[in-house]
Amino acid sequence: MRNVAPTKSQQMKLKQELSFAQLGYELLDQKRNILVLELLSLVDQAVDYQQRVEKSLAEAYRMLSRCSADMGQLQMSRLASAVFIESDITLSQRRVMGVMLPVVDTTFRDHAPYYSPKNTSAWVDASIREYKHALSMMGHLAELKVSIMRLAEEVKTTIRKVHALDRIAIPELQDTVKFIDGRLEEHEREMFIRMKRVKQMLTKQEERHGTTSPSHPGIS
User: Fold this and answer.
1) 72 Rama class: left (phi>0) / alpha (psi -120 to 50) / beta
2) In a domain, 162, yes or no
3) At 64, which CATH number?
4) What is the mean pLDDT of residues 157-182?
5) Partner residues linked to 105 by β-bridges
6) From 73, 78, 150, 219, which residue has the greatest number of CB atoms within 10 Å?
7) What is the pLDDT of residues 30-87, one digit of tens each?
8) Residue 182 falls within a domain, yes or no?
9) Mean pLDDT over each residue of the chain, to the nearest integer
10) Residue 12 is part of which domain span?
């Protein structure tokens, strides 16, 4: 409970502060629920993409091994030096409940043809396509993992704020408001008793002088 003077002005101020704290608690609780749902969704996506990336890399490596078996290591090295593919990674952001999350977009620019199709295994093109696909998915997987870390940190911060309001700030304000309400009610009762005594004294004085005066307004 706060150490404040039990006055009407303090009562009004603390009641407004309590109302604001309760509203803040409701909003933060909603934010926490939305963040948790988004976090769980991203975790599911990340698990799925991790499996897809591993599968794609394994498939690309299998195709590369087939190329090596068909053409030999020396010819594969010559083809590798001829391949010219540029990649662009574009980073942008999206906002989820005030949290900035990354968006990764991976694009490729081919400068084909790299080599003559003569005496070239068909597995070469398939291997290139699969590696490009795997790299694109790895960009999205990195986006998901960074987003998960940021959301998890924001969830922890929001939970701390919710608990601070629910367990400390709001109960403290409620106790203080209750204390002030009680003291003000006690003060009003004391004032009523005093006014009643004053009326009784005035009535006795009037009776002694043999006069009768009208009742004082607001006193009964």
Assistant:
1) left
2) yes
3) 1.10.287.3240
4) 92
5) 90
6) 150
7) 999 999 999 999 999 999 999 999 999 999 898 888 888 887 778 777 777 778 888 8
8) no
9) 86
10) 8-171
Chain centroid offset of residue 128 CA: 40
Count CB-CB contacts under 10 A for residue 167.
Answer: 10
Place of tokens 């004085």: 205
The answer to whether residue 108 scores a pLDDT higher than 60 is yes
Match 């006069």 to its residue by tokens.
Answer: 211
Query: What are the residues whose beta carbons fall under 8 Å from the beta carbon of 126, sequence distance 6 or more?
Result: 63
Q: Are 151 and 38 spatial neighbours (Cβ–Cβ below 8 Å)?
A: yes
Q: What is the rounded CA–CA span in Å between residue 33 and residue 27?
A: 10
Residue with tokens 């004032």: 191
Our count of domains for the chain comes to 1
DSSP conformation class of 113: -
Is pLDDT of 129 > 50? yes
Strand partners, 96: 99
The helix/strand/coil state of 3 is: coil
Which pTM was predicted? 0.72
CB of 102 within 8 A of CB of 93?
yes
Query: Would you say residue 195 lies in a domain?
Result: no
Q: Which two tokens stand for residue 183?
A: 């003291």
DSSP string over 118-169: TT--THHHHHHHHHHHHHHHHHHHHHHHHHHHHHHHHHHHHHHHHHHIIIII
Q: Is residue 120 part of a domain?
A: yes
Unique residue bearing structure tokens 């990195």: 142
